[in-house]
Structure formats: C-alpha cells, structure tokens
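INTERNAL TRANSFER SHEET
From: sequence group
To: structure group
Subject: Glycosyltransferase 2-like domain-containing protein

Please process the attached sequence and return the structure record in the designated field. Keep the field labels unchanged so the import script can parse them.
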Amino acid sequence: MIHLHINLVESVMNKECLSGEQIAVVIPCYKVLTHIESVIAGFGTEVWRIYVVDDKCPEGSGDYVKKACVDPRVVVLYNEVNLGVGGAVMAGYKRAIADGASIIVKVDGDGQMDPSLVSVFAAPILRGEADYTKGNRFFDLEELRAMPGLRVFGNAVLSFMTKFSSGYWDLFDPTNGYTAIHADVARHLPFNKISNRYFFETDIL
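Return from structure group:
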C-alpha cells in the first residue's frame, strides 16, 4: 500500500499512462446535492465509469443526477435503505467489479476531494507498486493550517487509533477517504465483515 503525496506534475504524466485502462470511480451520495454535479464534471477522460451511489438520500441525489447529468460514463445505483458511507462504497465496489473495472477509486460527493487527481491514485497500482493507495491531507502545510484546531486534534487521535489497530504505523493519514484499490484485491474483501459506517476504511486496512 502507498500513502500518497499529491504532485500535480506527476498527475499530468499519470493521465497519459492510464489511457485505455478501466478506471472506475465510486461516489457515495448522502446530502451532497449541491456538490455532486461539479464533482462529476471534474473527472478527466482517464475515468472509464462513474458510479453514483444514492444511499437513500433524502435529497434524491440519484434521481437528480439521472436528470441533470448527460455524461454517458455515469451509472446511478440506489440503496433501498440508508446503509452509511461504507455500505454505499461497498455497493459501488461490487458493481464496478461486476462490470470489469481494473481499478476502483473512491471519491466523496461533497466537493472536498479534487476529482482531477484520480490518476495520481491509480498510477502506482497500475505500475505494480501498490494494491491500495490513500491520500494525505497533512502533506500540504497550508491546508493543514487552514483546518480548525479541534479537527486536526480529532484526526490525529483517530489516526493513532487506526495505526494501532491496523499495524500500518508508516501511514500519515490512515483515515483519509480518497482511496484507490485494485479490483482483484477488492473482489476478495470480506464485504459482510466491513463496517457500513465511517470505520469501513479501517476495516479495509
């Protein structure tokens, strides 16, 4: 597994080497109606398919995307009940695997993750350097300074707990939600044992 630092020059180079790969994006949707359209619009041509998972969203995110979005790569999935972000992502994983994706990238629908960086997360997997990649919010000092102190403290505590439980002490930001996984690895995940809520990423580790 690789914990990624964001490099924009590398991002451009990676997009070129991803040509022809089946890169899928999974977006869990719950109360993100005001952001979801711009998130989808931000994905480049390296993305093969975009799975929008409506997790019984009270705003009707799935129906909105179906009506407003004309991107042919978009597939809208619906959970019959609200499962939580973990359950929504796993639903997207399963569909992406069934459709033949090679790499699955998870991006939140609230606009806080840059969709143009998909290639940064996917490239190390395609090069055989990792099976799973995660972002690192603490690499950018300016962004870190902009975060409220309480949030930084909370992230630090959760990160320590995750490192302790997973054994991945070299991860700077293990709770980061911007991730990519090789489909061959994802298909062997114990889906029935992974949390449906926010700790699902710790379960994957």
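Handover comment: The mean pLDDT is 80. The longest strand covers residues 47-54.
Transfer complete.
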